[in-house]
Design goal:
Three copies of one chain form a homotrimer. The first copy, chain A, has one domain: Phosphoenolpyruvate-binding domains (TIM Barrel), CATH 3.20.20.60. Chain A is built from eleven helices and eight strands. The first copy, chain A, starts with a strand and ends with a helix. Chains in contact: A-B, A-C, B-C. At the A-C interface, helix 5, helix 7 and helix 8 of A face helix 8 and helix 9 of C. The structure holds magnesium ion (MG) (3 copies). The site of one magnesium ion has 5 residues of chain A, from loops. Chains A, B, C: Its cofactor is Mg(2+). Chains A, B, C: GO terms for molecular function: lyase activity; magnesium ion binding. Chains A, B, C: Keywords: Lyase, Magnesium, Metal-binding.
Chain lengths: ~230, ~230, ~230
């Protein structure tokens, strides 16, 4: 479950929908201007600290901006050892992973990474990107199709190749894969059908951007990741 | 056409449905206990010998258990030079193929291999697995999806990537590819639709687990593999 | 928009449907006999020269026969520096691209290449084939499926893997990808649906073999490639 990094009110409410994990987002949910990103960082840092204190058993992650963006380095100041991990969008190579590790290490951090594969290069290099400390991966259909110059459709046929490839690479790497966001907020049946597709392809869960999606996702994916892991 | 390795009666009846080839199965059709596997081996060895004698023009193969299983080595005792080949499930790498060759050679055998690609690693490494003496390949959807942690659906969308990839790799290797088993035994139309999908993707034939499926498969795939080969 | 290399009348009419580019075809549109190919070459050379003179702002390309065919070397005599490029079908490797470059250079030509990926090897090696001077790529579904030994269907599911893979590799190489030909000449809706699939997958345009298809393709793909490029 994602919440915008600049909305302390929404971040505080994140536990209400009982998600498996929450992501405080400094990337897509925050306007791409230096001022907006800077403001979000200070809000997110405090809100993350409060959330970890209020919900000690909840996995709290922060999504920073992409390594190649001008915001990445400053975003790292939001990270703390109390987080369950850092979400890095648009990872494209093993080199990118090394860059993240080095940047974390320079701040004394060793957080596990949730890798976002959502560009042509990321999907093509899916196998090599999923090296430790990458501990989870998500496939981002909207950004992938934008990068390709394609068009999103409700049936997802245009991402079946990439969505399948990422799930397969994740299995080889031994990391759980999280399925695409459903951006249309109406339509429980559409969400469920989308979730069933992802589950059939081997995804372990689904990224949610609205509290109502969490229960729907649990309905389709069933067990929590923790239970799923024990069952393996 | 497959028959359980522990059922001499069914093995003897295999020629009745006029399949292109038959497989005496020591793997999935036999319970995974040392006792059941041992009992199946002695039944299968005699039944294979009788079948080769009774139907000298029929291609008779034996499916052993996977290289990584505790049954593989003992299964090799069932193989004889009279067989048309050995079916090895869950092959995952060129190293696996070498291991099979070495094990066969240590018993003075040089049988061609039908490779089962039905795990994440097998599908990912499809091209490198298909080296001589691999002479045929099959894609196993049930095991593949189990390995991925996915869910099988009637439309097969969740295996379209893997099923396409295996057919493509088989063409590059110059070996015929055999399409997925249809496990639902009711529904001729469902079988035919499944077979049409496989044929469209470039598969040369289909694995059958019920005598009634053989005629349906011939109806969709038309020519026998031998005729097909001559036409190339 | 394609026209047969042996039909001066059709070549002269090519600009009428206002295509983005035209291809004078010495390959599939000309019977595969030495006599027919030789006759087409002299017709095509004159017709190309006249077309370039009559429509100086139109991109005129010539499709030669495949590198491995007995016609390739002689086809090069049709090429001139005035052409916008040479279309080379059935490219399969970086070595093939080098062979084309060398052959062009031996005639003092440095034309950009439109690469046809339409065999098993071409699709598998898609990424390595798309090196300069490859400036565009097209995916050929009919030839690909023939090479695989499969069957074409109206829904294109049997080529979704290959069509997706080529679009992805093209994005990585930074070259526009052109989508499959629709061979059924009836059915505007079928053409539009096919074009929408291609556009969703990231294709920048569509190969057309009938003048009526050009307007339909523009209707679905919208901007011309030139406009598209400026927008990036
Ligand atoms: Mg994004
Ligand atoms: Mg199995
Ligand atoms: Mg062709």
């Amino acid at each position: 479950m994602f919440a915008p990094g600049n909305r302390a009110d929404l971040i505080a409410k994140l536990p209400r929908s009982a998600p498996d994990a929450v992501v405080i987002d400094l990337e897509d949910a925050v306007p791409a201007t230096p001022e907006a990103k800077a403001a979000a960082r200070s809000i997110a840092r405090d809100a993350a600290r409060d959330l970890v204190a209020a919900a000690p058993h909840l996995a709290v992650l922060v999504r920073v901006n992409a390594v190649a963006s001008p915001y990445f380095d400053d975003d790292l100041a939001v990270l703390t050892p109390e987080l369950a991990g850092v979400v890095v969008p648009k990872l494209e190579s093993a080199g990118d992973v090394t860059r993240v590790m080095t940047a974390l290490a320079s701040r004394g951090l060793t957080l596990p990474i949730m890798a976002g594969l959502e560009t042509a290069a990321g999907v093509w290099n899916a196998r090599e990107v999923m090296v430790p400390p990458v501990a989870w991966v998500y496939f981002g259909a909207e950004d992938y199709v934008t990068d390709l110059g394609g068009v999103r459709t409700p049936g997802n046929a245009e991402v079946l190749y990439a969505r399948s490839r990422v799930a397969l690479a994740a299995r080889l790497a031994g990391v759980p894969a999280l399925d695409i966001v459903v951006t249309r907020l109406q339509g429980e049946d559409a969400f469920r059908e989308d979730a069933r597709q992802g589950r059939a392809l081997g995804y372990a869960g689904k990224l949610c951007i609205h509290p109502a999606q969490v229960a729907l996702a649990h309905g389709e994916f069933g067990a929590t990741p923790a239970e799923r892991e024990r069952a393996h």
